[in-house]
TrEMBL record:
This is Transcription termination/antitermination protein NusG. GO terms for biological process: DNA-templated transcription elongation; DNA-templated transcription termination; regulation of DNA-templated transcription elongation; transcription antitermination. It comes from Streptococcus pyogenes serotype M49 (strain NZ131). Belongs to the NusG family. PANTHER family: RHO-INTERACTING TRANSCRIPTION TERMINATION FACTOR NUSG, TRANSCRIPTION TERMINATION_ANTITERMINATION PROTEIN NUSG. The lineage of its organism: Bacteria, Bacillati, Bacillota, Bacilli, Lactobacillales. Pfam families: KOW, NusG. Keywords: Transcription, Transcription antitermination, Transcription regulation, Transcription termination. The gene is nusG. GO terms for cellular component: cytosol. NCBIfam families: nusG.
């Protein structure tokens, strides 16, 4: 388990780096190398380039290729200390943090729901997140057809959650993904 996604300052969070388009892999490589060189592996935790598989037809043949979902952007999970910010910000081909408003201001981390959706779309399992949600808890659905409803957790298995919802005056069981709910 990796821990919570969005925490208070000086705790870890997911941030978006803006890079020169086409240099995303080089930025990832450089950033991981710099984290090791500057002894920042406790602060710069993960670097991800969101990709998707697409089918491309060429010369009458269909081929699957990995394509960058967000050209010019790289995701980094890090503890936002002054030192880590400096190392990341000064990595070659990084032009800045998304959500930073200049004057050396620290950027805003992604919301937990945003990073969950991105990582799940990349085929990574949701179990990289700590969750304090357990059977019997009342949660709010934050995504999907039941968004905005509250329900009681009946079962959690393989990143799927069965909830008891009160709909039309009777209790109904609904199944949602773990990333679609939030603690109240």
């Amino acid at each position: 388990m990796k821990g919570n996604i969005m925490l208070d300052s000086f705790d870890k969070g997911w941030f978006v780096l803006q890079t020169y388009s086409g240099y995303e892999n080089k930025v990832k490589e450089n950033l991981l190398q710099r984290a090791q060189t500057y002894n920042m592996l406790d602060n710069i935790l993960r670097v991800e380039i969101p990709t998707q598989t697409v089918n491309v037809e060429k010369n009458g043949q269909t081929k699957e290729i990995e394509e960058n979902r967000f050209p010019g952007y790289v995701l980094v999970e890090m503890v936002m200390t002054d030192e880590a910010w400096f190392v990341v910000r000064n990595t070659p081909n990084v032009t800045g943090f998304v959500g930073s408003h200049g004057n050396r201001s620290k950027p805003t981390p992604l919301l937990e729901e945003e990073i969950r959706a991105i990582l799940l779309s990349m085929g990574q399992t949701i179990d990289v997140f700590d969750t304090n949600i357990k059977e019997g808890d009342v949660v709010q659905i934050i995504d999907g057809a039941f968004m905005g409803q509250e329900g009681r957790v009946v079962e959690i298995e393989n990143n799927k959650v069965k909830l008891m919802l009160n709909m039309f005056g009777s209790e109904t069981v609904a199944e949602v993904e773990l990333y679609q709910i939030a603690e109240l």
